[in-house]
Amino acid sequence: MHPLTLVFTLVFLFALSPFPLSAQTEVSDFARIGFSSFLTPIVSDYQCVGINPANLGFVPQTDLYELASPMGGGIERRRRDVSFSVAEGGVSLHSDALRRQGLLDMITQTASGSFTEADKREAARAFIDKGVRFNIDVFILGAAYQSQSWGGVAFAVRERIAGTYVFSEAASALAFEGRYYDYFDSVAVNWAGDTVGYSTDPKTYSELFDGTRISTLWFRDLSVSYGIEVFKEEKMRVYVGATAKYLMGYAYLDAFVEGGALSARSAVSPILGVTYGKATTPSFIPGNEFVPVGDGFGFDLGVTVAYDKFSLGLSVVDIGQIEWDGNVFNAKDTILNGMSSTGFDSYNIFEEAQKITGEGNYFKWEGLDAAPSDLPSRFRVGAAYEWNSKWRFGLDAVIPFNQAAGAMGEPLISAGADWRPLPWLRVGAGLAGGGEMDFTIPIAATFSLFNGVWELGFQSRDIVTYLTEDSPVMSLVIGLARIRL
């Protein structure tokens, strides 16, 4: 099976069967090289797309390289109005259920078949009301031009994937203990000779999984942004901007039980090979091509106020909706009777998936013509103070508007400093909290080569992960081809 197909088959079949395994963090809000902790009031050119489009109105200033830089030399003054990049972005994976080694096992898929019965019980307990969250945000292409008088414009193509997988007590026990979960109080052998655990007092999914949330969202974001300076007086400047987005959806899952009611909808591109048993849908797309199964529109709005060395930025991002009109299904509530799986033997979810994908059609699926879904909207506010040409301090807050698929679970606040010890080097570090994570220490570094024409750098949301075991945040943002002319 193609690896991509296997991943999403697991996500959708496993998550919508009675064994939801887990897997959003906020990399979409920080996936820009060169920035560790705060972006809203300062990030510019194509990098401000999805953050604060008002900053496209910043008038490019002259760069001064006082010392010889790597692969460059001497003192050079140059104003850079054009910027572009390809394949700049990042991935983040966070778990409040797994320790660092468990998360590494999930990523590397190297620990298959190692769980004892005691390990399974421990894992089942660890995942109660906890889980895994992931996020991928990559600029396939980003480009911007910022003028001296009429503002700036940017174009970007981004690939965005986010997921949140959090389990109730019953969902966690079913995944890791399987038929040994005490919900199954009887044992029998089925027609295929498999031992099956049965419940003499079966319950519906809505009863068993109250509090479970499983969501995945994958779409391509094609955007055009514009920002302009609208007020200038002495030391004060005001910038406003907007972004218009066309969205192409490739995968959507939103399944949760809340207040005793089950809600589960899904739409998946044919290339992922996800099936729904005998259920049919009027929105069926034949074949196995990589085609979108929905589209929609969205927008961002932003404003930035700068006074002397201080700046304040505010924005609302991802306001909009995707209409899913291909391979759309809705799940009905059903009763869970029996199970033959003995539970996961490791955190190797790809290897373990085959244990839980072949036991039958647990949900009753019905096809739909279409289904809408809101974007995971957010409000951003940030402030910065530029102490001198080498030091800058700031803070950022990202606050979710809704709990749509792919949304942040709670607000995220971060603060830190950027330091430019050399004309060709900028480093940053800070503190962050919220976003369903413990306190983290984000770091970043950017290198300017050929007197600032070529930039490359990296960022990580948490250096502490590599020093401690609990609540790991595996995160990396990287860009190797940022060009400024």
Task: Draw up the topology in text.
Blueprint: H1 3-16, E1 62-65, E2 76-79, E3 82-95, H2 100-108, H3 117-126, E4 131-146, E5 152-166, H4 169-177, E6 186-189, E7 195-204, H5 205-208, E8 213-233, E9 236-258, E10 261-268, E11 294-307, E12 310-324, E13 328-332, E14 335-339, H6 349-352, E15 364-367, E16 371-374, E17 378-386, E18 391-400, E19 412-422, E20 425-434, E21 437-440, E22 443-449, E23 454-460, E24 473-484
Describe this structure in words.
The chain is mostly beta strands and 485 residues long. The chain has one domain. It contains 6 helices and 24 strands. The chain has helices at 3-16, 100-108, 117-126, 169-177, 205-208, 349-352; strands at residues 62-65, 76-79, 82-95, 131-146, 152-166, 186-189, 195-204, 213-233, 236-258, 261-268, 294-307, 310-324, 328-332, 335-339, 364-367, 371-374, 378-386, 391-400, 412-422, 425-434, 437-440, 443-449, 454-460, 473-484. A 14-stranded antiparallel beta barrel has the order 3-4-5-8-9-11-12-17-18-19-20-22-23-24. The longest helix is centred in the N-terminal third of the chain and has 14 residues, at 3-16. The two termini are 44 Å apart. Residues 1-27 and 356-361 have low confidence and may be disordered.
